[in-house]
User: What shape does this take?
Amino acid sequence: MSHRNPSKTSEFAPTWYEKTAIQAPVCLDSGSLNDTYDVAIIGAGLAGLSAALHLAKAGSKVVLIEKFTIGQAASGRNGGFCTTGWACGDEDILKMVGPDQAQVLNELSEEGLRWMRERAFSKNYASCQPINGCLTLSLFASEELDISKQKLTKFIRGPRYKSGTLDLTAFHFHPLNFLRCLTLDCLAAGVSIQENCEVTKIRSVVDGKTDLSFGDNQAIKVTAAQIIITTGGTGGTRFSKLARLILPIQTFITVSDPMPEILAHHIPTDYAISDTRRAGNYFRKLPDGRLLWGMGISALSAPNHQKINTMATKDIAAHLPELAKDMRCANIKLAYAWSGTMGYARHFMPYVGQISKNMFCVTGFGGHGMNTAPIAGKVIAEALSGTSDRLEAFGSIPRQATFGTIGKMAAEIYYQASQMKDAFKERLA
Ligand SMILES: Cc1cc2nc3c(=O)[nH]c(=O)nc-3n(C[C@H](O)[C@H](O)[C@H](O)COP(=O)(O)OP(=O)(O)OC[C@H]3O[C@@H](n4cnc5c(N)ncnc54)[C@H](O)[C@@H]3O)c2cc1C
Assistant: This one.
C-alpha cells in the first residue's frame, strides 16, 4: 500500500539541483514497514540521514520518516558550501559554553567537515562534483585576512572586495546528489525509509515505548524505543517542545543562464566565494557555466521567484557591477530562483540532546549545516548506542525560547540592522 502524496511536493520551487540530479533512490513502501524499531527518526535531512546511518551501522533497527521527498528541504537546496565552524561565531561559543566545551565543539565541526569530504570525494559520491576551496572576502582591508586587494584580482574582479582568505580544506558540491548518495548508504545499511509521510502524532505507550502515526489519516503506525526529531526549520508547530526553541528563517538562491566566458573573466576561480558580513552574499560557478548567487534572509515574508530575482539582480550589480553589465549586454537571465527554510535558535547554536523520556532532538543548524548537521547526527547515534559521551558538549548550550512572531520580528530587525551597520561601516572605511 503506497502513501505517497505527490501534491505535497508542489510547495517547493524547482531548483537547479533537481534539474541536474541523479535518480532518486527508491525507498521503502509503507506496506513493508515493520511495526517495532529501536529508533524512529523524524525528518530525512542531513541530520536525520547521518543519525540513521550511524545507528544502523551500530546495529540498531532504524526507521526514518520524511514528510516530503528526500532533499526538498534545506539539505538538498542550499548553497553547497561545506566549511568548518558553526553558524555561531567562535567568540560567542566560547562565552556561551566555556573553553573546554568550545574546544570540543570546534573539533566536532572539523570532524564534520572531514566526514563530508571523505564521502563527497569518494567514487560512490562522484555525482556530487566536489571542488576544493572556499574563499572568504571582506569589504574592508583587513590585516587578519591574508589576501590583499591586489592579489584578489586573481580570483574576482569587483571594486568592493578589499581583502580575503582562502580555505583549501573547505569545498563546494551538489548537495542534493550528496543526499541521494547518503540515502543509498542508509538503505544499504538496513535503514527503513518512508518518504512523503508527515509524522503527525507521537504518543507514549507501555514499556517506555512510543507510537508514531503518519500517512494519510494517520493510517500508518510504528512503535519505537527511542525517537529522534531532526525536522530542521520545517518542523512547524507539530512538536511543541521544539517549536518554542527554533525559528524558521528563509534564505534565497538564484542561478543564472550558462555564461562560462563571462564568468571566466569576472570570477577567474573555481573556488566558492562568500563574504564576512552576517547579512552577506555567497556565490560560486556551477559546473555547467552558470552562476549560483545566494543572499538575504527573511523571518516574516516569503518572496516569490520574481522578487528573489529582483533582489539578486540588484545585489549582483551592487557587488560586481561589470559582471552585471556584461550579463545585461549578453541577455543572460536568472533562470532559477528558490528559497529554503533554515532552523535557528536565538544563539545560533543547534539543540542536540534529550527533550523528554526516550525522545531526542538534533536541530537548529541555521545557515551552517553541511558539516555540523552530519556530525551532530553521528554524536546522537554514539550517545544512543552508548559508545561515547560526546553529547555532553551540547549540554551546556542553553535552551532559549524564541517567542514565536515576536521572535520572528526581532530576527527581521536584527537582519536589517546588520545590513545598515555593514553599509555604514563600508561608507566610513
Ligand atoms: C537556501 C539555503 C542555503 C544554505 N546554504 C548553506 C551552505 O552553503 N552551507 C551550509 O553549511 N549550510 C547551508 N544552509 C543551511 C543547511 O542547509 C541546513 O543547516 C541543513 O541542511 C539542516 O539540515 P537538517 O537535517 O537539520 O534540516 P532539513 O534539511 O531541513 O531536514 C529536515 C527534514 O525534516 C522533514 N520534516 C519536517 N517535519 C516533519 C514531520 N512532521 N514528519 C516527517 N518529516 C518532517 C523535512 O521535510 C525535512 O526534509 C543553507 C540553507 C538554505 C535554506
User: Anything to note?
Assistant: Confidence is low (pLDDT under 50) at residues 1-10. The CA atoms of residues 157 and 366 lie 30 Å apart. The radius of gyration is 21 Å.
